[in-house]
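Write out this protein's structure.
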Amino acid sequence: MNKIITTRLWPCVGRHKLGMLFIGAFLLISSNLFAQERMVSGKISDADTGESMPGATIVIKGQTAGTITDVDGNYSLSVGNDAVLLISFVGYKTKEITVGNQSVIDVSLEIDITQLSEVVVVGYGTQESKDVTGVVSTVNAKDFNKGAIASADNLIAGKVAGVSITPSTEPGGSPNIVIRGVTSLNAGAQPLIVVDGVTLDNTGYGGGRNGLNFINPSDIESMTILKDASAAAIYGARAAAGVILITTKSGKSGVPKISYDGYYSYSRPKVDYGFLSPSNFRAVVANKAPQVLPLLGNSNTVWVDEVVQPISGQSHNVSFSGGTDKSTFSVSLNHQVNNGVVKYSKNEVTRANVKVTTKMLNDDLTVSVQQRSALSKDNFGSVSGAVFTFDPTQPIYDSANEDYGGYWEWKQGLAPANPVSTLEQVKNIGETRRNFTALNAEYKIPYIKGLALNVIGSADFRDGKSQQFTPTTYLSGTSNLGFISEGAHKAYTYNFEPYISFKKEIEKIETNFEILAGYSYQETYSESFGIFGDDLTTNVYGWNNPAVIGNLKPWEINAVENQLQAVYGRVNISLKDRYLLTSSIRYDGSTRFGSGNRYGVFPSVALGWRLLEEDFMSFLTQTFSNLKLRVGWGQLGNQAIGDYRYEKFYFSSTNDARYQFGNTFYNLLRPTGVDPDIKWETTTTTNIGLDFGLLDNRLTGTLDYYNKVTTDLLATVAPPAFTNVSDVVTTNIAEMYNKGIELGLNYVVYDRQKFDWDISFNAAWNKNEITKLDRGGADSPGLPTGGISGDVGQTIKIWKVGEAYDAFYTYIRDPNGVSSSGVKYQDVNNDGQINEDDLQIVGKPAPDVILGFTSSMTYGNFGLDFTLRSNLGNEVYNNTASANGYYSQIFQGGIRNNIHESALETNYNSRQLHSDYYVENASFLRMDNITLSYNYNKLKFLNARIYGTVHNLFTLSGYSGPNPEISGGIDNAGYPMATTYIVGVSLNF
């Protein structure tokens, strides 16, 4: 029908051509006169960086009229009052703006993750996310946690499924990171950190709290976590605990950019550790120990309030970047002051970074060089047990005690020192310098398309010192000899990694493949030495004059050197853009093992299937916009077992272990008991996963099931008879597994007009179990672990076959049970007595489920972001209560002591360290951070962001202590947690 009508109309047009042209011209002029009445102008910029966006498109909705922005992101357009502008740019969310009576309209565009084919960083290269077959999660800078963050680790807490990050409450302290469950009993369990392709030695060193503090968090562009073996096996013997890849920012070609980021913070401590107030202490003494009443003092001192305080902090970061098509640069300088809520505790760090990238030889050679330097100063301070138990009826000062600094003291036996005296007089500081230089070069071989030679080289130097000074006016018990200790710590790490890569597309069979092969060498060296001693002759010089030490002794930690060498290879194949294969192998060697077990092989293979590319799966396109099935298997190693553990060392025997020849007794040289065949621990992982997208990729997610089996775990067990000089030896004998399910979701809730709202959610369930511990099999009695305070040599955890790692092991209260010290416990074996045979598993520190939820909203120029974290199914042993929650402590050792208020509930008269009462449910929900911001972009030369953040706003938990999130699960009154309020500004010129 349309074709017939069209052929009939053409003759009419031909006969009345001039008339039709006249009518069209009249309508066009009328349209211009009545609809396009005035000009609007403005600037289009990136919402995250504030950078101008040349080439952005601005059109009038419903019309073809429009324009594009110039090189500075500026535009002007003639519009009518009722016009609606559509502003768009490839890879960004389109914005719709009603003109109204506005004449200047500046717009900030946000990246549209649903449109981008995201490129993710993997080991030794990058891949498009659609082609990734391993379990790889990336967090970009715009999604990082906000707050007073000194260490890069804390940027991603709560952001990735299966990654548990327990932040340190100390200023600048190291968090504890666990990826998919603990995989070691005695070896290192922290993930491998790789910065711009360079593997770091992050084992820490003397003088500082956290070795990773040398990286400025503001310099980081993204952090990628390799969680399964198929993704991480390319790093071989160091990747069993997972891998975190850090990519730092580089300069961009164009107009140079200057940025400033700064904030001021104010922290309020949470210090309710549950001890009696002075008035309650007097009341309990009157009721439970009235004979002590005449001995109490007349003061009312809350000791914890004297050593803990609200405190402020600040950070300032300046960066300068720019470049040309050939060369780019990025320079940053950061100074951060992290004051602790314990008086005088502090972490102050100054960081500088220079990164230059240039192209040469017709752009075939790309060289990137970076230099990072950091100076970190730490003042160590903690809340000692005495701050809770010191008699609250005694004063802080006593003018009669001039020899003891004017502080009130007990002056007897093993009595603790006045906690304020400890804080004011004992000095403990550290200082570290770190210089990190790295080179990355890529040379694309001419005339062989796809072939490239890459070289990574780095030198990492660490230099630290630690100093401690205790004057003779400090009294602990009856000793006031003073003490000085001073040490120097030096270390370096060299890395050299050349590798080649070859990419090829074979159009005939619709196949893309990449082959990578390389060699890796790392050398690490460290040493420490210093002096210490007491019996000081004067306090005048502090730690600056060792000559005042009457009892001077040198100390030295023997120099430690180790090397790691490897060859590795990987192949990636994509067939018809739907069938994916990734396989890698690494042959690793480490000097941490004896010659018989120095080398090992770590293979992996992973398959991917993009289901929607299949014709017979076309019915799924009505529901899914992306659907990829992944299956992976691989093996990883853990060589973080310490150095020289395969080697015997000889020591002189003690005087009570001499050998008699005739009538004379001689000290002998005795070797340590070792297993010369000790080797790395091996983790084998199987993973099945699904990547999916719904609602045109507005809802995207991943679902994974994994099973990790770790064998050859190091455990200290009895060796076979007559095979060793020691009754116990550390050897590869134990096994455990972790299995779990992970879910990650990202949802674009709303992205129209002025309002945008994105949310993300992640959940992970993990089950851990020890399956072998020693040669005793399932009948093994287990190995006690988890030392606690309150008595000498006591433990509260156990490693036991069939149970979770670090399970709590206690007696269970039973009103009908056997009485022991007035407390009745379950008599498990019914032998009429309570002993170690009646201890039972009552919980574990690791959660069953970890959850994370992030929300990001913008309305106009305002933004609201927050992150929630939750742990479910974990327990904490309240050692603060167990060591102090009994009435007889009120008068013990000839002095008066405060007690924990739990005694009012339990009525324990004697210490009950192994009561299940102290193992508490520590599940929690925490508002990690919430940020309200305003983006000001009315000036062409400046984009400003003003924000306010609250860190640790609230924690919902049934745990009785101040902080349910305790690394290791034993709460022994550690460093106090704080709520931090932050006001900051970001300026981009």
